[in-house]
Amino acid sequence: MRDDRQRLDKWLWFARFARTRSLAARLAADGFVRVNGLRAENPAKGLAVGDVVTVAAPHATLAVRVTGLGLRRGPAPEARLLYDNLSGDPAPPELSE
What we know:
Layout: E1 6-7, H1 8-14, H2 21-29, E2 33-35, E3 38-39, E4 46-47, E5 52-57, E6 60-66, H3 76-79, E7 83-85
C-alpha cells in the first residue's frame, strides 16, 4: 500500500473503534463501515487523510474525518488525534464492545 494510505481495519483499530484488528475487519466486512459515503466491504480498503468514515454500531453511529494515519495503537488521547468527529456526539472509547 502507498505511504499516504492505510488499511481500513488497521486504522479503525489504531483509532480505537474496535478492541481488536479482527473485530475491525469484521465491522468492515459486515457492512457497518462507509468510506466517503460508500459501503466498505473490504477491510483492506485504503484510507487517506481527508476521507470521511462512518461507523454504525448497535448503540451509536459516528461520522469522522481522517486527520492522521496511525503508526501504532496508543492510548485513547493519542487515538483521538487520528480523526475529527463530524457527528457532534462524543465518541465512545471503543464502539465494538
